Amino acid sequence: MTPVERALRERIQEIPDPCSLATGVPLGIGEMGLIESVVHQEGKVTVRLHITSPMCMMAAYFMREIEQRLTGQEGVESVHVEFDHDLKWTPQDIHPEARERLAAKRITMLGGRMIPRGEAPTSR
Description:
A hairpin with a 2-residue loop joins β4 and β5. 31% of the residues lie in helices and 20% in strands. It has a three-stranded mixed β-sheet, with helices on one face. The protein has a two-stranded antiparallel ribbon with strand order 4-5. The model has no long low-confidence stretch (mean pLDDT 88). The protein contains four helices and five strands, in the order ααββαβαββ.
């Protein structure tokens, strides 16, 4: 990941995930492990996101938030958001610290799936 891509990723990490907001433990899409990639090539930014469930209805919200946070940044001419419809995301992708915050509130499911306890996130 280039320094520009790292900076762009930082700008979107804290976008709130509505599923976690509903639990009372707000997590950003970065903590949730929803950001698959951020690619910057010749002014064009492509953000690829995982979705937590085939029932996820927040795609338009994520697109709008990402576009608003990245449009107008230095070196950014356009922003495109893609979604992983293969449902590669699992609760193991939630960062361990975020899983601990969920566990402290006794939250055991998110996105319709069980949250594992004390396991490191998978890397893809």
